[in-house]
C-alpha cells in the first residue's frame, strides 16, 4: 500500500469526537511519520492533549508519535521522555536510527542520574578532610608576605580558582556535560518519578537482552560509568551462574578461561585504566575481591592485584598461606608467582607486613604461643572461604616451612634482584666503542663534560656490574673534582644496582671511616648515595648502616649523599625514626644538604599522605630563606602525595595559590604524582591552564612536562596535546613539551612523537635541543631498524652532535645522556613506568620525576636508573631453579633483535699519491726479470732429475694463478654486492634481510623479550607450562614430568664472582693496582703499594679545590727519568 503524501486529512481526525478515528489517525501517522513529521509538528499540541487525557485508550501510541516528531525536531530529551511514556510500544529490538538514538539517550541519562546520586550520597557520608593541613597553610601564608592576601590559601573555597580548574568542578558535572552534548537542553534531571520508573524499566529490558546474549561487557561498562555497584555485582554473579549451567566438555577440554574469568579481567582492566576517581576504583576493587572469594576456583592473581591496590596485607598473606598449605606443585608455583607479583607492585611497608604475618617455624618454646592462636584464627577465616579444613601452624610440615622461607625471600626482593642481576650480566650487549667516542669527544677537564660521560657510562652499564670503563680510563677518572667525583662514585651504585652481596666490598674504600681520615668528602658522600642506589627500594638490610653513617656525618657533602641514599633505600617505608633524624638535620638550615634532606623525607613517606609530615614541611618551607631547601621540600611534599588523587586536592590548591613560584612548582609536581597514570581530565585541564597562565617559566615548564606523567598509559594522545605547545615562543614551554613526549612515549617508538621531536633537535635554544635529544633516546630505547627505520638516522645524529666542537655544552650534555639512555642496561632495559602486570611502577615513576630535577642539580640524574626495567623472560620451576628450556616467538628473528654494534674504524693513514714511474726504472725492472728467468732455466738444465718438488712446482704455480683468477671473480662479485648495498638505504637493506628470514624461532630461557614481543610469545607443548599468561619478568612453570632429571642453566654471575674473588673489583682497587704497576716500571721499591696509592689519592681528593694538585696524576706517566738513568 503506497504511503501518504499529505497528513492534512488524517490530522483532521484528531479533532473528531470518536476515539476510534483518533486512534486510526495516530496509527496512520505513526506508520509514515518519517515523511509526514513536518506537517505533524504543527499539531503537537493536539497529540499532547490526547497523551495527557487519562480516558484516552491509546495514550502510549500518542506518546510514541510525539517521541518520533520530537526526534525529527532534534529535541532528544523530549523525544526520550515521550518514548519512555510509550511503554512496550517503544521496541528496543528494532534497528532503526530513532530506536538507537533514544536508547543511547536513555543510557546517558541513566548514567548521569545514577552517578549524581552516588556522588551526592558519598559527599553526605564523607568525613572532613585534612583540617590540620589547612591550618598549617593558614599559618604559613600569614607569615609569608602581604601578597598572600591577594591569593589566599584559606579557607580553600572553590571560588578562589577559575572555573573548570582541578578543584572547582561541581559534584554533578557529568550530568551537566552530558546534557549539553547536543546543545538543546540545560539539564537531564528527570522531572518526575513516573518517568524515572519508565527509564529504569527500559534499562532493565536492555540489560536483560544483553545478558541473555552473553554480552556481559556492555552491561559492566554502563554499570561502572553509572557508578552502580549493585548492577555490577548482579552481572558478575549472572555470568558465574551461566557458566556453571553451561559448564561441560568443551570448556574443560580446551582449558580456555571461562566467561566469568574473562569478565573479571575486563572489570579489573577498566577499573585500573579507565576509572579516574580513586574512591570509586577502591569500591569496585573491594566488590571484585568479595566476589572472587565467593567463586569456587578464583583467579588468585586478580585477588593479589586487588589486595595490593587496597593495601590489604592480611588478604595477601592469607592467600599465600592457603596456597602453600594445599601442598601440591601447582599451588606452590602459584604462591611463588603471586609473591613475585606482590614484590613488583607493593611498597616496602606493605611487603614487610605480609612477611611478618607469614608463619615461622618456632624452635623455642612456649613464649610464642600467642602468635599461633592469632594465626590459626587468620587461617580459619581463609579456609572457611576456601571450604577446606582448618590446619594449625603447629601441624605444618618442614617442607611447608621451607616453602614459606622461599616466599619470604621472594617478598623481600632477594630472588627478583638476583635473577635480574644474572639476566643483565649474561646478556650484556654494551657497545664500549660508543662510550669511548663520547669520552674522546668531551674534554674531561670540563666538569659538565666529565659528569656527562659518567652518566652515559652508568646508564649503559646499569645493573650489569661491568665497570670495565673505569678500569680502562683511570687517567680520565683522575680529572674528576668536587661534585664530579661525587657523581662518579655514585655511578658505581647504578652499575652495581642489586649487587647486594658485593655492595660493602665494592664501596669500602670510599665509605666514611671512623678511625682514619678516609678519602675525599665528595667520594664519601657519593659512596653513601651509591649504597642507596644498590639497595634501591630494597633497603631492609641497608637502612641501619645508612642511618648510622648519616647521624655520624659532620660534613654537609656527606650528609647530602647520606640523605639521598637513605631516601632511595627506604623508599615508601613510612619509617618515623628515619623521618625524625632527617627533620633534625633539615632544621640546621643548611642549603647544601637541605635540598637532599627535604627530598629524602618525601621518599621515606612516599605515598603515605602523612598529614603531620606535610605540616612540618609546609611550615618550614615558609620559614626558610634558602630556595634549595624550599625546592627540596616542595618535591618531598609531592612525593608524599604520590597516587593519592583526590586526597591531594587540598595540598594542590594551597601550593598553587602560594606567591612563591618554587612552592607553585611543587604544587604542579603534586598534581603529576598524585594523578600519575590516571589520564585524569581535570588534572590535564589544570596543567594546561597553568602552562599558559603562570608568570614563572619554571612553573610553566614543569606544568607541560607533567602531562607526560598523567598520560603515560595513553601515549598516543600526548603528541596531539603538546603539538602547539612544542611551537611556543617560550623555550621553557618547548622544553617541557619535548620532555612530556619522552616521559609518556618511553620505549614505544611512536612515530608521531618522533616527528614532533626531530625539528626540535635544531631549535635555537640549547636546553630545548638537550630535552629533545633526551626524549628521543627515551622513545627509541630498545628499538632497532626493523621496528623503526628512523633509529639508524637518530643514532647517527647523536654521534654527530656529541663530536661537534661547535655545539653548545648543554646540548652535548643532553646528547651524552641520550647515548646512555638509548642503550640502557646493556641494551636489555626499557623505561617502564608500569609493571609487567599493568600496575604503576612506583620506583620508576619516582625515579623519572626526580630525574627531571637534574635541571637544578646534576647528581639527581642517577635517579633515572630507577625507571630502567629489565625486559626479560625468566622461567622458574617449583624449586625456584632455572631450567633449560625454550619458548617460541612467532616472529622473524631480526624484528626484535639487538641493534648491530658500531663498527670501529681504525685511524687510516693519509692516502698516498701514486708516484710517477720513470721509463728508465721500468726498463731496469724488465732487465732484472729477464736475468731471473735465464738463471732459472740454467738451473733446470743442470739438474734434470725429476724430483717431486720440481714436478709440483709449476703445477703449484698454475694453481696459484687459477686461484688468483677465482679470487678476482669473487672479489668483483663482492664489489658488486657492496655497491648495491651502498646505493640502497638502511631501511631497504633491513627489509630485504627480513624477507629472507623464516617466521618463528625458539628462544632460550632467561633471554631478552621486549614488551612489544610479548604478544607473539607462546610456550610449546612440552615438559614445562606457565602458571599464567606470560607477561614478562619471572614466570613460574609447572613441571609435567617431575620424576625425570632436569637440566638447569648455569648462573654466570655466580661463577664469575668466584673466579674473580682475588681480582680487584672496586674502583679504588683498580687505581691502587695501576699505581703499583707504574712504580714497578720505574724500578722503585713497591713496599705498601696500595696504601701509598690511597694516601696520594686521598691528598688529591682533599685539596682538589686549590687547583695545583690536578697535575699530580701526570707524574706517574713520565718514564723518561728512569730511561735516562738506565
Quick rundown:
This protein is an all-alpha fold. 60% of the residues lie in helices and 3% in strands.
Can you walk through the features of this model?
The protein is an all-alpha fold. It is about 60% helix and about 5% strand. It has a four-stranded mixed beta sheet with strand order 6-3-9-8, covered by helices on one side. A three-stranded antiparallel beta sheet has the order 5-4-7, with no helix packed on it. A hairpin with a 6-residue loop joins strand 8 (about 1025) and strand 9 (about 1035-1040). The chain starts with 7 loop residues before the first helix and ends with a helix. Residues about 125-130, about 140-190, about 250-255, about 365-390, about 940-965, about 1060-1065 and about 1075-1125 have low confidence and may be disordered. It holds the Pfam family RPN2_N.
Amino acid at each position: 500500500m503506497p504511503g501518504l503524501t499529505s497528513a492534512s486529512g488524517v490530522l483532521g481526525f484528531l479533532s473528531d469526537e470518536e476515539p476510534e478515528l483518533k486512534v486510526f489517525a495516530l496509527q496512520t501517522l505513526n506508520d509514515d511519520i518519517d515523511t509526514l513529521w513536518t506537517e505533524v509538528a504543527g499539531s503537537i499540541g493536539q497529540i499532547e492533549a490526547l497523551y495527557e487525557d487519562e480516558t484516552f485508550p491509546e495514550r502510549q501510541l500518542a506518546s510514541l508519535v510525539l517521541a518520533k516528531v520530537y526526534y525529527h525536531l532534534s529535541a532528544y530529551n523530549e523525544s526520550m521522555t515521550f518514548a519512555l511514556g510509550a511503554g512496550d510500544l517503544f521496541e528496543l529490538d528494532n534497528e532503526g536510527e530513532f530506536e538507537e538514538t533514544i536508547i543511547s539517550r536513555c543510557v546517558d541519562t541513566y548514567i548521569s542520574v545514577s552517578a549524581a546520586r552516588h556522588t551526592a550520597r558519598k559527599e553526605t557520608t564523607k568525613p572532613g578532610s585534612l583540617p590540620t593541613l589547612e591550618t598549617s597553610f593558614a599559618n604559613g601564608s600569614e607569615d609569608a608576605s602581604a601578597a598572600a592576601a591577594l591569593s589566599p590559601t584559606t579557607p580553600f573555597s572553590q571560588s578562589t580558582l577559575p572555573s573548570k580548574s582541578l578543584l572547582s568542578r561541581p559534584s554533578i558535572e557529568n550530568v551537566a556535560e552530558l546534557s549539553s552534548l547536543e546543545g538543546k537542553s540545560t539539564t537531564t534531571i528527570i522531572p518526575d518519578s513516573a518517568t524515572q520508573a519508565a527509564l529504569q524499566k527500559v534499562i532493565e529490558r536492555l540489560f536483560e537482552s544483553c545478558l541473555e546474549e552473553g554480552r556481559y561487557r556492555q552491561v559492566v561498562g554502563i554499570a561502572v560509568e553509572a557508578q552502580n555497584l549493585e548492577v555490577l555485582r548482579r552481572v558478575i554473579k549472572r555470568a558465574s551462574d551461566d557458566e556453571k549451567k553451561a559448564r561441560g566438555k568443551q570448556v574443560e577440554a580446551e582449558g580456555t578461561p571461562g566467561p566469568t574469568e574473562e569478565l573479571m579481567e575486563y572489570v579489573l582492566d577498566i577499573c585500573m585504566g579507565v576509572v579516574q576517581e580513586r574512591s570509586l576504583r577502591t569500591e569496585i576493587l573491594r566488590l571484585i575481591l568479595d566476589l572472587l572469594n565467593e567463586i569456587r576456583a578464583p583467579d588468585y592473581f586478580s585477588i593479589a592485584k586487588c589486595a595490593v591496590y587496597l593495601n590489604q596485607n592480611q588478604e595477601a598473606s592469607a592467600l599465600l598461606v592457603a596456597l602453600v598449605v594445599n601442598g601440591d606443585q601447582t599451588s606452590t608455583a602459584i604462591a611463588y608467582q603471586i609473591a613475585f607479583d606482590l614484590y613488583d607492585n607493593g611498597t616496602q611497608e606493605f611487603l614487610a607486613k605480609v612477611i611478618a604475618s607469614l608463619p615461622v617455624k618456632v624452635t623455642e618454646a612456649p613464649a610464642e604461643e600467642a602468635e599461633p592462636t592469632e594465626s590459626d584464627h587468620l587461617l580459619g577465616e581463609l579456609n572457611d572461604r576456601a571450604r577446606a579444613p582448618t590446619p594449625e601452624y603447629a601441624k605444618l610440615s618442614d617442607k611447608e616451612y621451607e616453602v614459606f622461607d622461599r616466599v619470604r625471600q621472594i617478598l623481600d626482593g632477594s630472588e627478583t634482584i638476583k635473577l635480574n642481576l644474572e639476566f643483565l650480566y649474561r646478556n650484556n650487549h654494551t657497545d664500549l666503542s660508543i662510550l669511548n667516542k663520547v669520552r674522546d669527544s668531551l674534554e674531561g677537564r670540563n666538569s659538565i663534560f666529565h659528569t656527562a660521560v659518567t652518566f652515559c657510562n652508568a646508564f649503559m652499564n646499569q645493573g650489569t656490574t661491568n665497570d670495565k670503563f673505569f678500569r680502562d680510563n683511570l687517567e680520565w677518572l683522575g680529572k674528576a673534582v668536587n661534585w664530579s667525583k661525587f657523581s662518579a662514585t655514585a655511578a658505581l651504585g647504578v652499575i652495581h644496582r642489586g649487587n647486594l652481596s658485593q655492595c660493602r666490598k665494592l664501596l669500602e674504600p670510599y665509605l666514611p671511616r671512623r678511625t682514619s681520615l678516609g678519602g675525599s668528602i665528595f667520594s664519601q658522600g657519593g659512596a653513601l648515595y651509591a649504597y642507596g642506589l644498590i639497595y634501591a627500594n630494597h633497603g631492609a638490610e641497608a637502612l641501619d648502616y645508612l642511618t648510622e653513617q648519616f647521624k655520624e656525618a659532620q660534613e654537609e657533602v656527606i650528609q647530602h649523599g647520606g640523605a639521598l641514599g637513605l631516601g632511595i633505600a627506604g623508599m615508601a617505608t613510612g619509617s618515623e625514626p628515619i623521618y625524625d633524624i632527617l627533620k633534625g638535620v633539615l632544621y640546621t638550615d643548611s642549603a647544601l644538604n637541605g635540598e637532599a634532606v627535604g627530598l629524602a623525607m618525601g621518599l621515606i613517606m612516599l605515598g603515605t599522605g602523612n598529614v603531620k609530615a606535610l605540616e612540618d614541611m609546609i611550615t618550614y618551607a615558609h620559614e626558610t630563606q634558602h630556595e634549595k631547601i624550599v625546592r627540596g621540600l616542595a618535591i618531598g611534599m609531592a612525593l608524599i602525595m604520590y597516587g593519592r588523587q583526590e586526597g591531594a586536592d587540598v595540598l594542590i590548591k594551597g601550593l598553587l595559590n602560594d606567591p612563591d613560584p618554587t612552592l607553585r612548582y611543587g604544587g604542579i609536581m603534586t598534581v603529576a604524582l598524585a594523578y600519575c597514570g590516571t589520564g585524569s581530565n581535570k588534572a590535564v585541564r589544570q596543567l594546561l591552564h597553568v602552562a599558559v597562565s603562570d608568570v614563572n617559566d619554571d612553573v610553566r615548564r614543569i606544568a607541560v612536562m607533567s602531562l607526560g606523567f598523567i598520560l603515560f598509559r595513553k601515549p598516543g594522545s600526548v603528541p596531539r596535546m603538546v603539538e602547539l605547545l612544542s611551537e611556543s615562543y617560550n623555550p621553557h614551554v618547548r622544553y617541557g613539551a619535548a620532555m612530556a613526549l619522552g616521559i609518556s612515549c618511553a620505549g614505544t617508538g611512536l612515530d608521531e612523537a618522533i616527528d614532533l621531536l626531530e625539528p626540535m633537535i635544531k631549535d635555537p635554544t640549547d636546553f630545548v635541543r638537550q630535552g629533545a635529544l633526551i626524549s628521543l633516546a627515551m622513545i627509541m630505547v630498545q628499538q632497532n631498524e626493523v621496528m623503526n627505520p628512523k633509529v639508524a638516522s637518530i643514532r647517527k645524529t647523536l654521534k654527530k652532535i656529541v663530536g661537534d666542537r661547535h655545539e653548545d655544552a648543554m646540548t652535548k650534555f643532553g646528547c651524552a645522556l641520550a647515548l646512555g639512555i638509548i642503550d640502557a642496561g646493556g641494551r636489555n632495559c626499557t623505561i617502564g613506568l608500569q609493571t609487567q602486570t599493568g600496575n604503576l611502577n612506583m620506583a620508576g615513576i619516582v625515579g623519572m620525576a626526580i630525574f627531571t630535577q637534574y635541571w637544578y642539580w646534576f647528581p639527581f640524574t642517577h635517579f633515572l636508573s630507577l625507571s630502567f626495567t629489565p625486559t626479560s623472560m625468566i622461567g622458574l620451576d617449583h624449586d625456584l631453579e632455572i631450567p633449560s628450556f625454550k619458548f617460541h616467538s612467532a616472529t622473524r628473528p631480526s624484528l626484535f633483535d639487538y641493534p648491530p654494534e658500531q663498527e670501529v674504524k681504525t685511524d687510516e693513514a693519509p692516502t698516498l699519491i701514486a708516484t710517477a714511474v720513470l721509463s728508465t726504472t721500468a726498463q731496469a725492472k724488465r732487465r732484472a726479470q729477464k736475468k731471473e728467468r735465464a738463471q732459472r732455466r740454467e738451473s733446470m738444465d743442470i739438474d734434470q732429475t725429476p724430483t717431486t718438488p720440481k714436478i709440483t712446482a709449476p703445477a703449484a704455480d698454475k694453481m696459484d694463478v687459477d686461484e688468483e683468477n677465482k679470487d678476482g671473480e669473487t672479489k668483483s662479485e663482492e664489489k658488486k654486492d657492496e655497491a648495491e648495498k651502498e646505493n640502497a638505504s638502511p631501511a631497504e637493506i633491513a627489509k630485504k634481510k627480513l624477507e629472507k628470514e623464516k617466521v618463528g624461532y625458539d628462544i632460550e630461557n632467561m633471554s631478552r623479550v621486549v614488551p612489544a614481543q610479548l604478544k607473539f610469545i607462546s610456550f610449546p607443548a612440552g615438559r614445562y607450562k606457565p602458571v599464567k599468561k606470560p607477561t614478562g619478568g619471572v614466570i613460574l612453570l609447572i613441571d609435567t614430568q617431575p620424576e625425570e632429571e632436569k637440566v638447569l642453566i648455569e648462573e654466570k654471575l655466580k661463577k664469575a664472582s668466584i673466579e674473580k674473588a682475588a681480582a680487584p673489583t672496586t674502583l679504588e682497587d683498580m687505581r691502587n693496582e695501576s699505581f703499583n704497576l707504574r712504580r714497578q716500571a720505574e724500578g722503585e721499591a713497591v713496599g705498601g703499594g696500595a696504601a701509598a696509592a690511597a694516601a696520594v689519592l686521598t691528598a688529591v681528593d682533599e685539596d682538589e679545590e686549590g687547583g695545583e694538585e690536578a697535575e699530580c696524576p701526570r707524574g706517574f706517566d713520565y718514564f723518561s727519568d728512569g730511561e735516562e738513568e738506565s
